[in-house]
Amino acid sequence: MSRQSTDSARRFLRLGLGLAALAAVAALISAPGRSATPAPAASEDGVVGAATAFLSLLDGDARGRATYDLGDEERFNWAFTPVSRNGFPLKDMTLEQRSAAHALLQATMSSQGYHKANAIIELERILGVLEGRPERRDPEDYYVTVFGTPGADGPWAWRFEGHHLSLNFSSPTGELTVTGPAFMGANPALVTSGPKAGWRPLGREEDMARALVHSLDAEQLQAAMIAAEAPRDIITGNDREARLEAVEGLPASRMSDEQRQMLFSVIGEYVGNMEAASAHAWMARIHGEIDPGEIRFAWAGSTEPGEGHYYRVHGPSFLIEYDNTQGNANHVHSVWRDLENDFGGDALARHYEEGHPHN
Questions:
Q1: Using N-to-C axis directions, what is the helix angle for 257-271 and 276-289, rounded to 10°?
Q2: How are beta strands 176-186 and 225-227 bridged, if at all?
Q3: pLDDT for 175
Q4: Given CA atoms 227, 232, 238, 239 in this order, what sign does their dihedral have?
Q5: C-alpha dist (Å) from residue 311 to 66, 159, 172, 199, 334
Q6: Where residue 24 falls among pLDDT bands split at 50, 70, 90?
Q7: In angstroms, rounded to a whole number, what is the distance separating the alpha carbons of residues 7 and 1?
Q8: What are the DSSP calls for 273-311, one per residue?
Q9: CA distances from 253 to 70, 96, 108 (A)
């Protein structure tokens, strides 16, 4: 790595960028002229093996609950609220099945992403105590659903979902894993009492974006600020396709070099939840194929901690939304959307067009 790359990496560390995302960004900035290097293909062996191992432990009834055809509409039936769900829940699994389900989640995410997912599940237990209704908040009410047949030669997908988690993974080919939609929430965003007081599982998502908005001068802030009051939730909700009425906010081309690095730190925090090869591929794609002027950072609401706020990072091929307004601004909703390949999207369509059979 060049001295310039090393210095840049240190700046990212000071900003709190996750290690997985840091590795991806450091690889991007090492090439002369900041050109992107083609990313290595993601290995499917671990994910396919983990999914196959999980399914091998299921009997007829459990397997029937856990599996759907790849083309079933259930694949697009995603939600992040405490609603009734289809799939096979952790609470009905044996210890061996549950271990295999977690092994599948670990194989599909980075260490950072996996630990965040488990922290969000643990928050259910804490929320039940805070509300005085522990029976309503069940940390075992999270579901695994597999679509199609896991394999390196054909497309398949799987989902891990429950309250404040909806992680959707698609594998159009043996060399590509698509992540999206990927929703993570936290209630409370900051645990204020008990053994975990001070805990903020999604704190970096807030802190990095707030540091960026505080770095803006008056003219930049005017361009970034899209509303004086933050919306009550992420705008795209759980729509099958993420759509916004307008592209708004401050273009990255109007930021200083340091501010653009801060913006990439925000992006990297979300991308860094993916396994390493997918994260690298995304950062290479964003940095190498997208004009910085096409990536916009938008903010709504207060810029002060503890007050309702919302932000998004919007590029031609991806969207990040973050909202913290509910529960006296102590309840986070955040999402990563792949605007081209959510649920497999264009990548899966191309696979079919090339003559591969539908499972």
A1: 150
A2: unpaired
A3: 59
A4: negative
A5: 35, 26, 31, 22, 10
A6: very low
A7: 10
A8: TB-HHHHHHHHHHHHHHS-GGG-EEEEEE--STTS-EEE
A9: 41, 51, 33
As to burial, measured by CB atoms within 10 angstroms (0-12 exposed, 13-18 middle, 19+ buried), residue 125 is: middle
Pairing of strands 67-68, 143-147: parallel
CA pair distance 156, 70, nearest whole angstrom:
6
For tokens 């992680």, the residue is 167
DSSP 343: G
Amino acid at 168: N
Residue tagged 């102590």 (tokens): 330
Task: Give the count of alpha carbons within 13 A of 207, CB side only.
Answer: 13
Q: Which two tokens stand for residue 112?
A: 């950072």
Q: Residue written as tokens 């900041």?
A: 34
Amino acid identity for residue 287 in this structure: H
* Whole-angstrom distance, CA of residue 9 vs CA of residue 13: 6
And the tokens for 73?
């509409």
* pLDDT value for 33: 34
pLDDT in tens, 86-122: 999 999 999 999 999 999 999 999 999 999 999 999 9
The two three-digit tokens of residue 258, written as one number = 């340091």
Residue 19, class by beta-carbon neighbours within 10 Å (0-12 exposed, 13-18 middle, 19+ buried)? middle
Per-residue model confidence (pLDDT) at position 297:
98
Report H helices in the chain. 3-15, 19-29, 45-56, 60-66, 95-108, 111-131, 203-215, 218-224, 257-271, 276-289, 326-329, 345-353
Burial class (CB in 10 A: 0-12, 13-18, 19+), 341: buried
